[in-house]
């Protein structure tokens, strides 16, 4: 169990992000402010889905995005540790 | 907090009394993770209490293990709706780490290896309500479950029981942690079903 990867690839973000973004999320690129690694959304390491999705830089594990789905809302932070947005989805 | 033999609660109380609203019982011990599992050797492990003034006091692994230890059995409740009954732990009550600490703080932030944080009222960590645990069911706590040591605060949803805990930061103001800042409830009482911000 110890060496089993706990994360999935960034395509797991596509569904939840498409609920709140007007553009196709899988075409997004992300650049890490800590280690400088850049790449498409799919390269992020995604942990979850419960209690929420946490996407991390594959190079340095810095949090790139956090997303929590509730029945009527999606909570989202991009990059930073605090300052989440709550979007109504229903 | 008393010490109970495993199963004592189970025979004495019915399922309805043990299961908070919206939860289901499980025999397994699910692993939920928001990042890679830190591997922290006990040789370099430390636990630090930092006050609102920046004063800090630290314990090495050996110093922590030299403190009075308690065996304690609890039901645990995850916000993802599973509950596990009669889980047996061994560790040090948080009271022991705060005994000689001078503070006016009303809140605490548990800080973990890997960057995870969770916030609690300080009083929820005192008076035998919380532990730093290193042993589960007679074995050293595995890294997947927060070893070598995690916080155990069984009266709140289990995200408050921070895995890989390395610091308690005492604060005058409440500072929402990793999940609390993205919609999860600030306090997280399973019996009041305080799952999300609106509950």
UniProtKB/TrEMBL annotation, chain A:
InterPro entries: DUF6510 (IPR045423). This is Uncharacterized protein.
Automatic annotation (TrEMBL), chain B:
Signal peptide: none annotated. Residues 35-179 form the Oxidoreductase molybdopterin-binding domain. Residues 1-21 are annotated as: Disordered. It comes from the Bacteria. This is DMSO/TMAO reductase YedYZ, molybdopterin-dependent catalytic subunit. It comes from Streptomyces wuyuanensis.
